[in-house]
Design brief:
714 residues, alpha/beta, Growth Hormone, Chain: A, Rossmann fold, 3 domains, 4-stranded antiparallel sheet, globular
Length: 714
C-alpha cells in the first residue's frame, strides 16, 4: 500500500470504529437500565478489546497487508452482528416482557457483541499505524476519521433508527475497504446499504418485538434520538420505552388519573403548573382540572410527543392540543429555566438512576425550581421508591432525596400511595395534607375528572403511612445529592437494575459504607502499582501511555457527566462534545509533529495533564459559562493527541513503527481501566473532585516511566 492508501485507510478506520461503537453501546444500554455503571462496563469491554487487538496485530507482521484491507469491513460486519445479538438479548437471557435481563446472560451477550468489532479496531490501527510509520500522523488521521464519523452518526444517521444506521455503516465500511481508487463504487455501495436498511425497518421492528416477548402485536415503533418507543395494538395499548413497560393507553382510570387529579389539590390555588415527565404513563391527562389555567409540559423527546399525539390516546391528545397547555421540547434544566413563575412544579420523571436522569434531583436543580415558584408555591417530586418498604436501596434513595430537598424547601412532607411522593414548600406555603382538607378542596373546586375521588383520597395518600414517612424525613441526616457528588445515582440504579446487576451492586454498597478516604486510596494505590510495575523491566516503556489513556478517559467521562448534570445534555450535544474532544486530539497530533524529541516532551505533558485534571475537578466547570466544558474537552484532546507521539517513541525504543501498536494498546488499556473505575465507582460514589485528583496523581507518577527511559537511553 502506498502512503495515500494508508492514510485513507486510517481515516476510514476511525470513522467506522466510532460509528460502530456508538451504535453498539446505544443498543447495549437498553438491555440494562442505562446507568453509568452499565456504561462503564461497556466502555471497558470495547477499549480492552481494542487493546487486545493492537497487541495481536503486533504479533502478526506477515498478515499486516491482509489485515489493513479487511479490518474496516470486519468492524462493521461484526458490529451489525452484535446489534442483532443485543436485540435478541431478552430471548437469550430469559427476561420477562418489559423487565430487565439478569446479569449473567447479559454480560455474556455484551462480551460476544462488543469484543469482535473492538478487536478489529485494534488490529486495524496497529497494522495501518505501523505501515504509516509516524505515530503523530497515524493517530491524527485516525482521530480525524473518528471526528467525522461521530458527526455523521449524530447529525445524519441517528434520527433514522438502527436498521438504516446499520445499513449505512456496512456500506461506508465496504466503500473504505475498496480504497480511494473506486470512489463511485464506494458511494453506490454506501447508498445500497442505506436502501437495504430502509427496506428492513419493519422486519427488524417486528422481530425485536417478538424476541422481547411483548404481549399482543406491534402497532408502531419509533427510534428517536433518545430512546426506542414501541406500542402494541388493541383498545388497551402498552407503551414500552427501550424494552421496558412505561405505561398503558388510555391511562389507568383507577390509579393514574385519580392520582393526577390529586396532585393539584395539594396547592391552595394552582393556577399555573409545570410538569416534568408524566407523559408516558398518562398522568398529564388528569392535570387540567379547575382552577388550573395554564399547564407547561416539559419533555425532551419530541418523538414521544409525536407518538402520543397520533390518535393512540384521545385523553392525552386532548391535553396536548388544549390552548391552556404549552409543550416545552427541552431538557428539565433549560425547560424550567425558561418558565415564568408557576404555582406548582411536578417532577414525575423516573428515578435518578443515571447522571442524565439525576439532573432533575440535584441540589442545584431544586434551587432552580425554587427560583421559578410564586410565593406560596409547591414542588411535588416522585421519589421512585415504593411505599411498601423503606429500607436498603429504597431507604437510601429516600433519605438522600429528602435531605437534598430539605436544604431548599423548609416545609417538606411525604405521602404514600402506590409510590412515595415528596411535597416541598417555602416558608409561606400552605400544605394541605389531611384527607378531609383535600376532600373539601375537591368539592369546593367542583372537579369533574374522576368520580368518587373524595372516597379514593384516603387510599391514594395512606395517612398513617404518610405520617411515618414525614417523621422519617425529620430524622434524615445523610449526604446531599449534587452535580459533583451524585449520591442518589447508586441506590436508584440498584433499584432500577438490581436484577440485572445483582452481582455488582452488593460490592458497590459495601464500598459505599467504607470510610470516605478508603475508596480513593484504593484507586490511587492501584494506579501507582500499574504505573510503576515495569520499573525493573528493560524492554517496555508503556506506563506513560497507560497513564495518558487513563487520564483522557477520565476527563471525557467527568466533563460529559458535568454537562449532563448542569446543562442538561441532548443527544446531538453528546455527539458535538465528542467531536470537540476528537478534534483536540487531531490538533495535538499536528502539534507534536514539530517536536524533535517527542519522548522528552512527556516531561512537560504529563504534569500538564495533572494540572488539567485538577482544573476539571474544581467547581469551575460546573458553575461557569457553557463554553468552558467544550474548551476543557478540546484541551484534554490536545494533550492526549500531543502525548501519543511521545508514548510511541518510548514504547518502541526510539522506533515509531513497533511503538505505535504498543502505545495504542497501552493507551486503550488505560482508558478501559478508567471507564471501569470511573463509570462503576468514581461517578456514582466518589464524585468529580476525588476522581480528578486520583487521575492527576497517576499522571505525575507516570513521569517515573519517562525518567527511566531517559536514563536508560543516555
Amino acid at each position: 500500500m502506498n502512503t495515500a492508501d494508508i492514510r485513507f485507510g486510517l481515516v476510514g478506520l476511525g470513522g467506522v470504529a466510532v460509528m460502530s461503537q456508538a451504535l453498539l453501546i446505544r443498543e447495549a444500554m437498553t438491555t440494562l437500565g442505562g446507568s453509568e455503571i452499565a456504561w462503564g462496563c461497556l466502555l471497558f469491554l470495547w477499549l480492552i478489546g481494542a487493546a487486545l487487538g493492537a497487541r495481536i496485530g503486533l504479533s502478526l507482521p506477515r498478515s499486516r497487508s491482509l489485515i489493513t484491507k479487511l479490518s474496516t469491513p470486519a468492524i462493521a460486519i461484526s458490529a451489525v452482528f452484535g446489534v442483532a445479538l443485543l436485540r435478541a438479548a431478552p430471548a437469550i437471557s430469559g427476561a420477562h416482557p418489559g423487565e430487565l435481563a439478569p446479569a449473567g446472560p447479559i454480560l455474556l451477550v455484551w462480551f460476544v457483541a462488543l469484543l469482535p468489532p473492538s478487536i478489529s479496531v485494534g488490529l486495524g490501527f496497529s497494522s495501518l499505524g505501523t505501515l504509516c510509520g509516524k505515530a503523530a500522523t497515524a493517530y491524527g488521521l485516525e482521530c480525524l476519521g473518528a471526528t467525522l464519523g461521530g458527526l455523521i452518526f449524530t447529525f445524519l444517521l441517528a434520527p433514522w433508527g438502527t436498521p438504516i444506521i446499520a445499513g449505512a455503516l456496512l456500506g461506508i465500511a465496504v466503500a473504505f475497504g475498496l480504497g480511494r481508487h473506486y470512489p463511485w463504487i464506494g458511494i453506490l455501495v454506501a447508498l445500497l446499504g442505506i436502501a437495504l436498511g430502509v427496506l428492513a425497518v419493519d422486519w427488524v421492528a417486528a422481530t425485536t418485538w417478538r424476541l422481547g416477548g411483548r404481549p399482543g402485536a406491534l402497532e408502531q415503533m419509533i427510534e428517536t434520538r433518545y430512546q426506542r418507543l414501541e406500542i402494541s395494538k388493541g383498545p388497551s395499548r402498552s407503551l414500552f420505552v427501550d424494552g421496558r413497560l412505561a405505561g398503558t393507553l388510555p391511562p389507568d382510570p383507577y390509579l393514574i388519573l385519580p392520582r393526577a387529579e390529586l396532585l393539584p389539590l395539594m396547592h391552595a390555588d394552582p393556577r399555573r403548573i409545570a410538569v416534568v415527565g408524566g407523559l408516558s404513563d398518562g398522568t398529564v391527562a388528569g392535570l387540567l382540572v379547575p382552577p388550573v389555567e395554564h399547564l407547561s409540559v416539559i419533555e425532551q423527546d419530541p418523538g414521544l410527543i409525536q407518538l402520543l399525539n397520533s390518535g393512540l390516546s384521545p385523553e392525552i391528545e386532548r391535553v396536548l392540543n388544549d390552548p391552556r397547555v404549552t409543550i416545552v421540547i427541552d431538557n428539565p434544566t433549560r425547560g424550567i429555566s425558561s418558565l415564568d413563575p408557576v404555582d406548582l412544579i411536578l417532577l414525575l420523571d423516573g428515578p435518578p438512576a443515571t447522571l442524565r436522569a439525576n439532573r432533575s434531583r440535584t441540589l442545584e436543580f431544586f434551587r432552580l425550581c425554587q427560583s421559578r415558584l410564586t410565593p406560596g408555591g409547591l414542588i411535588i417530586v416522585n421519589s421512585g421508591v415504593s411505599s411498601t418498604y423503606i429500607g436498603g436501596h429504597s431507604g437510601r434513595l429516600f433519605t438522600v432525596q429528602a435531605a437534598t430537598l430539605a436544604q431548599v424547601f423548609p416545609q417538606l412532607m411525604a405521602f404514600a400511595g402506590d409510590r412515595v411522593f415528596f411535597v416541598g414548600g417555602l416558608d409561606d406555603s400552605d400544605l394541605a395534607f389531611e384527607p378531609q382538607a383535600l376532600v373539601e378542596r375537591w368539592r369546593h373546586r367542583g372537579s369533574q375528572g374522576t368520580p368518587y375521588l373524595d372516597q379514593m383520597i384516603p387510599t391514594l395518600i395512606d395517612p398513617a403511612r404518610s405520617e411515618e414517612l414525614t417523621l422519617l424525613i425529620d430524622s434524615t441526616d445523610c449526604k446531599l445529592n449534587t452535580v459533583a457528588r451524585p449520591s442518589a445515582v447508586l441506590p436508584a440504579a440498584a433499584l432500577t437494575e438490581g436484577r440485572g446487576l445483582h452481582i455488582l451492586m452488593p460490592l458497590l454498597e459495601d464500598l459505599q459504607r467504607t470510610p470516605r478516604w478508603a475508596a480513593p486510596s484504593i484507586i490511587i494505590i492501584m494506579a501507582l502499582v500499574i504505573v510503576v510495575w515495569g520499573l525493573p523491566r528493560k524492554k517496555t516503556h508503556a506506563e506513560p501511555a497507560l497513564a495518558i489513556g487513563f487520564a483522557s478517559m477520565t476527563w471525557y467521562l467527568l466533563l460529559l457527566g458535568t454537562w449532563q448534570g448542569t446543562r442538561g445534555t441532548v443527544y446531538s450535544e453528546i455527539g458535538a462534545l465528542t467531536a470537540v474532544f476528537m478534534a483536540g486530539m487531531v490538533g495535538g497530533s499536528i502539534w507534536s509533529r514539530r517536536w524533535p524529541d517527542p519522548g522528552r516532551s512527556l516531561f512537560f505533558l504529563l504534569p500538564l495533564a495533572a494540572c488539567l485534571s485538577w482544573v476539571i475537578g474544581a467547581p469551575l466547570p460546573a458553575n461557569s459559562s457553557p463554553i468552558v466544558i467544550p474548551l476543557l474537552l478540546a484541551c484534554g484532546g490536545l494533550v492526549t493527541g500531543a502525548a501519543f507521539a511521545g508514548t510511541a517513541v518510548l514504547a518502541g525504543e526510539h522506533n515509531d513503527r513497533p511503538g505505535i501498536g504498543r502505545a495504542f494498546a497501552a493507551d486503550e488499556a488505560g482508558a478501559a481501566l478508567a471507564a471501569l473505575i470511573v463509570g462503576v465507582i468514581g461517578l456514582p460514589l466518589l464524585g468529580t473532585p476525588i476522581v480528578a485528583t486520583a487521575s492527576a496523581i497517576i499522571c505525575l507518577a507516570a513521569v517515573v516511566g519517562v525518567w527511566r527511559h531517559d536514563t536508560t537511553t543516555q
